């Protein structure tokens, strides 16, 4: 962790972030690693909170160089996919062996100076310092969405809390309680499977039916293998919930219309007609003692049901992620996409010449979707893809 690669104290490139996107920028990008300083609060994947959970992607979908088999050889014989701990080690070692310099620090601000950028850092020991760069790539990732404030005040948690507490062996937040999970994707499905063994019952409230990949959906971001357990639990528990001698955890999946909170009471509504698929039909009222709905409107065949849970419940948010960026006026002033990520073009260029984005903070949803920013892209007028108001970028070469 040195600055030997900087010329006169100014780096050719500073990459902010030590996750998979930061490593891909270093190892596959257009600046030699020896001329790069990586500044990261933590080195390793942002998925580390998943602990020993097996990742959805296969080893070759997660490699950080162009060398097929690089990660596979780090796995135990017979494993197709790494767990998050194994992947974390691979990301960390991959960066530390890349030849780039690495500093553990949080970037507190980025400003332009006459020649490029000045970044203000705070180290883990609280020391503040500045580094200078010709160009900056933000690879700062994303963070799970938090429940709205009033839900948080009422005890709702985000799904990453479930993973973090499970790695400590702690299930006290949901043991014996009714769990209500808001979310439709893999995080919702997989969190349900993790909470089910200790919970009284689990209800996933989705805004749409996503489907299993590749059997029910061609979208590779649809439900992946670890979600299959929850899929099976929904069907199996509809037959066996509460029956002895097996105690199959009770899990339901409903496409819902509304979810509200009133004091201690959580209330949701759903329609029969949008829940007639595999999971919905196994989750409708009267399938087991937990599924007690009241018809609030509609007639036979198109009933709208309402269910409530009281203080003996916990609500979990599993509704996706928000991009993360360093604080400061420069970044706050830039235009954004509808998902909150910074507007950029296909080369990762933002509205500020010399400032780039890559990885989850650039809307790239998986490791094998991650492409390094092209920091040496020649000066061309690239029209904006998504945001019409996006300014044409002048690139420092
Ligand atoms: C539950 C879950 C499961 C997933 N499973 C898969 C999967 O199986 N396969 C797949 O391809 N993708 C998966 N993803 C998506 C995956 O997380 C991303 O593809 C990938 O981790 C994004 O990498 P990244 O480097 O952009 O961000 P991250 O890995 O989050 O890295 C961000 C880095 O930026 C640093 N940082 C942030 N702010 C600052 C700052 N101000 N100063 C300094 N450093 C900062 C952080 O410390 C960290 O080092 C999953 C995501 C989730 C949430």
UniProtKB/TrEMBL annotation:
| Origin: domain of life | Bacteria
Q: Which Pfam families match?
A: Pyr_redox_2 (PF07992)
* Gene3D superfamilies in the cross-refs: FAD/NAD(P)-binding domain
| Record keyword Oxidoreductase present | yes
Q: Which reaction does it catalyse?
A: [thioredoxin]-dithiol + NADP(+) = [thioredoxin]-disulfide + NADPH + H(+)
User: Is RNA-binding among this UniProt entry's keywords?
Assistant: no
Domain called FAD/NAD(P)-binding: residue spans: 12-208
Q: Which UniProt keywords apply?
A: Flavoprotein, Oxidoreductase
The protein's name is NAD(P)/FAD-dependent oxidoreductase
Specify the species. Answer: Streptomyces virginiae (Streptomyces cinnamonensis)
């Amino acid at each position: 962790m040195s600055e030997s690669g900087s010329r006169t104290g100014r780096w050719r490139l500073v990459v902010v972030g030590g996750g998979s996107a930061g490593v891909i920028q270093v190892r596959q990008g257009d600046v030699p690693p020896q001329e790069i300083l990586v500044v990261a609060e933590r080195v390793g994947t942002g998925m580390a909170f998943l602990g020993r959970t097996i990742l959805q992607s296969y080893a070759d979908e997660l490699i950080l160089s162009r060398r097929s088999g690089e990660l596979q050889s780090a796995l135990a014989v017979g494993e197709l996919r790494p767990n998050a701990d194994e992947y974390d080690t691979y990301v960390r070692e991959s960066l530390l062996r890349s030849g780039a310099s690495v500093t553990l620090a949080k970037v507190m601000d980025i400003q332009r100076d006459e020649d490029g950028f000045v970044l203000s850092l705070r180290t883990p020991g609280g020391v503040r310092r500045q580094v200078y760069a010709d160009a900056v790539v933000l690879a700062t990732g994303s963070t799970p969405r938090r429940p709205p404030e009033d839900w948080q005040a009422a005890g709702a948690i985000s799904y990453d809390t479930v993973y973090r507490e499970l790695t400590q062996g702690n299930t006290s937040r949901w043991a014996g309680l009714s769990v209500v999970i808001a979310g439709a994707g893999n995080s919702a499905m997989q969190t349900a499977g993790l909470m089910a063994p200790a919970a009284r019952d689990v209800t996933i409230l989705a805004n749409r039916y996503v489907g299993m990949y590749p059997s029910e959906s061609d979208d590779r971001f649809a439900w992946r293998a670890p979600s299959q357990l929850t899929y099976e639990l929904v069907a199996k528990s509809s037959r066996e919930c509460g029956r002895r001698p097996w105690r199959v955890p009770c899990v339901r999946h409903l496409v819902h219309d509304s979810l509200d909170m009133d004091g201690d009471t959580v209330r949701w509504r759903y329609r029969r007609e949008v829940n007639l698929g595999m999971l919905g039909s196994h989750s409708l009222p009267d399938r087991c003692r937990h599924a007690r709905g009241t018809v609030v409107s509609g007639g036979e065949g198109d009933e709208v049901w309402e269910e409530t849970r009281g203080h003996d419940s916990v609500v979990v948010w599993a509704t996706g992620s928000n991009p993360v960026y360093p604080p400061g006026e420069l970044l706050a002033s830039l235009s954004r996409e509808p998902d909150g990520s910074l507007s950029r073009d296909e080369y990762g260029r933002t509205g500020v010449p010399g400032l780039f984005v890559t990885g989850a903070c650039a809307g790239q949803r998986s490791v094998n979707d991650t492409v390094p920013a092209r920091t040496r892209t020649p000066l061309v007028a690239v029209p904006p893809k998504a945001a019409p108001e996006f300014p044409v970028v002048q690139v420092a070469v």
